[in-house]
Amino acid sequence: MQLNLDRQRSIPLVQQLADGLRDWISSQRLRPGTRLPSIRQVVREQGVSQSCAIEAYDRLVSLGWLEARHGVGFFVAERRGQAPFAEEPAWDEGAEGRWRLFSDEQEDLLRLGCGWLPGNWRQSEEIALAIRQVSRGAEQDLFGYGPPLGLTALRQQVRKRLALIGIQVQPEQILATQGASQALDLLVRTLLKPGDAVLVESPGYYNLYNLLRLHGVRLLEVPRTPEGPDLEVMVALLREHRPRYLFINSLYQNPTGTSLTPRTAQRLLELAGEHDLRIVEDDIYADFQEGPATRLITLDSQQRVIYLASFSKTLSSSLRVGYLVAEPALVARLAEVKMITGIGASRFAEQVVAQLLGSGVYRKSVQRLRLRLAEHMASALRLLEAHGWEVFAEPYGGMFVWTRYPGVDFAGLQRIAQEQGVLLSPGSAFDPQGRDSDWLRINVAYARDHRAQGFFQAVAQASSRRPPAS
C-alpha cells in the first residue's frame, strides 16, 4: 500500500492518511468485509505515529467507509445504496451568494466579503488556555445547563465593560445569548407578530431580513446615508405605516461601515418619542471602537432603546456568546422564550468568555485588533482609490468598506474575482428585496492579500479596455 503523504503540505497528516486510505480502498475496488492492514502495519509502512493511524481509521469509520470489529481489526464497510452526502442544500442563486461564505468547500478561495476576522488574527493560545482552565474547574461548567439569564460571572463582566462606554445598567437588565443572532431572534419572537411592520436599513444585515420574513413581519426600507438613516424617508414611513420598531447598526454599520452622527442620533430619539417607536440597536462591532462614538442607548432618556452586542466577532465565531440590555420586565420575558426554544445557552462557552474578560486577555486582544484594523482600513482605502474604485463613505473604524467600480455590474466583478481566486459578497444580499446591486462589501482584514490586490487591479484594467459608450 503506497500512500503519498507530504509533511510539507498545510493539510494535517491525519487527514492526508485518511484520504489516502479511502482512495486506496476505491482504487483497489476492495469488497465489503475485506480486512485492512493493521494499525501497526500502517505505522511501519507509512512512517506515522500510532495515534495518527488510529485517528485516521476512526475517521473512516465515522464516515461509513470502514467498520471496526473489537479485537479483530478494521474492515471495508457495506456502502451499497448510500447516496453521496451533500455539504450544502440546493440554494437558489440569491441565497447561494449569501451562504457560500459559510461553506467549508473551496477553502482555497479568499473570502474578501466575509463578516469575520482571519483566524490567524485571533488569540488562539489565550483562548486555548481559558478553555483548559474552565475544563479543570467545576464539573457543572462542563456538563450543566446554563441559567436562564446567563452565568452571573459573565453578566458581571459585561456590566463592567458597558460602564466603560457610558452604558450604566443593573444586573437584571442583562441577558446572555448565543451570539447576537439569538438576541435578535428572541426579540422578534417575543415582540412581533405576523403582519407587523418594522423599519430596517437599506443596505443592511441580510440575516435580519431573513429572520423578519420568517416570522411574517413587513420590512419598511430606510436608506442608509453616511450619517445614518435617511430621516426624511423615515418620517414619511412613520406617518404612513406606524411601524413598531426600528432595527439599526449605530456603529460601523454592516455593510457600509458608516456610523451615526450625534445630530442624526438625537433626531432619531426625538422621532421615536413622537411616534411611539422602539429601537433595537445592534452594536455587534462595539469593541472595534477607536475614539469617540455615538450610541443611541447612551442618549436614551425614555428607555426606548434595546441594546445588543456579541463577542463572536472579536474572540471566535465558534464561541457563540452575546448579550442584550433592556428593562428587567422585558429581559425576564426574553429569558423565558430563550429557555422554551433552546433550554438556555452554552454554559461552557459563557464560562470561557467570562474567564477571558476577567483575566484582562480580552481587553488586550481588542486593543491589538483595533490597531491592526485601522492599518488595514487605511491601506484598503488607498488601494481602492489608486485603482479608481468608488467608496460609499470613508469609515473611521470597523472592518467594512462599501464600494463599487463605476460601470461594472456584479456579474462582471464576479467573473474577474473567480479568475483571481476571490469569493465576493454580492450587494444584492444586503438589499431587503434582494435587488441587483453593483456595490460590494469588502472586509479590509483581507484586502492586503495578493489575490485581493490582484482583483482590484484586474477590475480597473478590464474597465480601461472597454470601448467607450456610443
TrEMBL record:
CDD domains: AAT_like, WHTH_GntR. The keyword Transcription applies. Keywords: Aminotransferase, DNA-binding, Pyridoxal phosphate, Transcription, Transcription regulation, Transferase. Pfam families: Aminotran_1_2 (PF00155), GntR (PF00392). Residues 11-79 form the HTH gntR-type domain. GO terms for molecular function: 2-aminoadipate transaminase activity; DNA binding; DNA-binding transcription factor activity; pyridoxal phosphate binding. Its EC number is 2.6.1.39. InterPro entries: Aminotransferase_I/II_large, HTH_trans_reg/aminotransferase, PyrdxlP-dep_Trfase, PyrdxlP-dep_Trfase_major, PyrdxlP-dep_Trfase_small, Tscrpt_reg_HTH_GntR, WH-like_DNA-bd_sf, WH_DNA-bd_sf. In the C-terminal section; belongs to the class-I pyridoxal-phosphate-dependent aminotransferase family. This is 2-aminoadipate transaminase.
